[in-house]
Amino acid sequence: MIIIGLDPGLTCTGWGIVAKSGSRLSHIANGQIRTNAKASMAERLVELDAALVDVILHHRPDAGAVEEVFVNVNPQSTLKLGQARGVAMLSIARAGLPVAEYPTKVIKKALVGTGGADKKQIQHMLKVLLPGVQLAGEDASDALAVAITHANMLGSHR
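Below the sequence we write its predicted structure tokens.
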């Protein structure tokens, strides 16, 4: 089974794809999608959707997972994040794939064992779980963590 994980953001959306075969996980790809900060909100959302569609068509995942929105101090930032997250979920769902959602604390706990893990701990664990992985950046790391969380949850639900 191939799983795409997304860490949505308007400025940068991370994506990570893993394959699960039994209890074995392997890295397929990861990357980051940056939108043009000078474009209108609508144009940026279209740009994000088009890039996600390209990734989905290229890698043909069987399922997708998205990190849930956390509330920022700035309501405008939260709203922009929510809009990017909506596009991320739509891109996966429109491809006919099931979409799972996971809170940040669940993702951190699934990977590191504690919901308070920091980015460095997550990146270290990714390198342990996916030997040789080259991370495209923090958002891509977070997206791979989402994909791995979903892969592990699939195993526990069956």
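Strands lie at 2-7, 12-21, 24-34, 63-67, 99-102.
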